[in-house]
Amino acid sequence: MSERKSMSRKQYFFIILILGSLATVSPFSIDMYLPGFPRIASDLQTTIDKVQLSLTSYLIGICIGQVLYGPLLDRFGRKKPLYVGLALYVIASFGCAMTSSVDALIAMRFFQAMGGCVGLVASQALVSDLFPADKRAEVFSLITLVIAVSPMIAPTIGGYVTASIAWYWIFVILAGIVSLIILAIYFFLPTGRDADSSVSLRPEAVLGGYLTVISQPQFLIYTLAGGLATAAPFAYISGSSDVFMNIYKVSEQQYGWIFAFLAVAMIGSTQLNHFLLKKYSSEQIIRFTLIYQSVVGVVLILGVYNNWFGLYSLIGTMFVFLTGQGLTGPNASALSLAPFRKHTGSASALMGSWRMGAGAVISAIVSFLHNNTAMPMVGMMAFCAFGGLVILQAGNVVVRHRAASRDVEEEVSVLL
């Protein structure tokens, strides 16, 4: 009997909710302070593009932190690294709230990310621990649904907190939320896989484990393709506050509602993925999604270049594009982790690190290309989808070619 079947419906609900909350720590930390960018820039006597670097530093922290947590989760089990990382997040959140310069905010956001990113790695590893392989894509879809709620409510809350109190209270609220998650982990979350003393933390052993993971073709293809494709929302996140609030002149509260509306695209497609998996494979869903996102990306570029879009038409076209994010992410995660048992933590860390690393680079490029138009944002969104499609197609061609070559070699050896 599978572990899923051995759980009661109540246990299953709480586990999904906790895993989703863990995976949501970083997205919530990104989305909630976006409406405060203009106020932060004003209070810290700097520019919005400099404040955007605090988002980039957060993504860099996630990228580095996940690589470190992978072996720790395999060596010490799932819960101990979770407690340490989330405690660091709480401390750094208070540091963000008390900062008096943009450079200090950028530094504190880095440490906040180094702590919070443990939730991303641990949640994915725990899915592999607690659920059979044929249920993982479904579970990842449910977790993605919880994550997708974040951009619906986080910017809205952040907009009202910024407008009615002050932007730094956002970080105090984040520290409180993560404190509650720590309590939920302690009381309700199963331990998952036990600590494994055979997993060495020596640098050469850690690198060897990562090389083992990278040498798996299925992992490499779906991690690279899925990671670049899922970096598209970071272009949107990095550029949207400037585009909507400075170009289209919406208020902080209106921006929060726009962000929430666009999040519905990801929530709806996450639920659609649950039904599509009954008829189509994860591989088929990913390929089709990247093709249609590439087409919509071209429409976005042409529309911005030719000034076709008003506020509502731009929002509508972006809604169509972002629908693909709820289809690509869960299926890419399930396919990337499917080949592993022993190195699940390391595989989760590499996958998450690449996704956030790609997101950091994309967000930095959007900030660097800032030109008071929506082109940097929509251009990088289109690039992510098309780049993911190219990697997926090229990777599958190489794998098929190698498989055919091995078959020929085996036939020749038999004949000889």
Automatic annotation (TrEMBL):
Q: Could you tell me which SUPFAM superfamilies the record lists for this protein?
A: MFS general substrate transporter
A cellular-component GO term for this protein = plasma membrane
Q: Which residues cross the membrane?
A: 12-30, 50-69, 81-100, 106-127, 139-161, 167-189, 219-237, 257-276, 288-305, 375-399
The way this protein sits in the membrane is described as:
Multi-pass membrane protein
Q: Where in the cell is it found?
A: Cell membrane
Molecular function terms, GO-annotated = sodium:proton antiporter activity; xenobiotic transmembrane transporter activity
InterPro entries for the chain: Efflux_drug-R_Bcr/CmlA (IPR004812), MFS (IPR011701), MFS_dom (IPR020846), MFS_trans_sf (IPR036259)
Q: Which residues form the Major facilitator superfamily (MFS) profile domain?
A: 15-405
* Keyword terms of this UniProt record: Cell membrane, Membrane, Transmembrane, Transmembrane helix, Transport
Q: Has UniProt tagged this entry with the keyword Ribonucleoprotein?
A: no
Q: Where is the signal peptide?
A: none
| Major location category of this protein | membrane
UniProt keyword Membrane, yes or no: yes
- A Gene Ontology biological process annotation? xenobiotic detoxification by transmembrane export across the plasma membrane
Record's PANTHER family? MAJOR FACILITATOR SUPERFAMILY, POLYAMINE TRANSPORTER 2-RELATED
The family annotation for this protein states: Belongs to the major facilitator superfamily. Bcr/CmlA family.
Report what the protein is called: Drug resistance transporter, Bcr/CflA subfamily
Organism, as annotated: Dyadobacter fermentans (strain ATCC 700827 / DSM 18053 / CIP 107007 / KCTC 52180 / NS114)
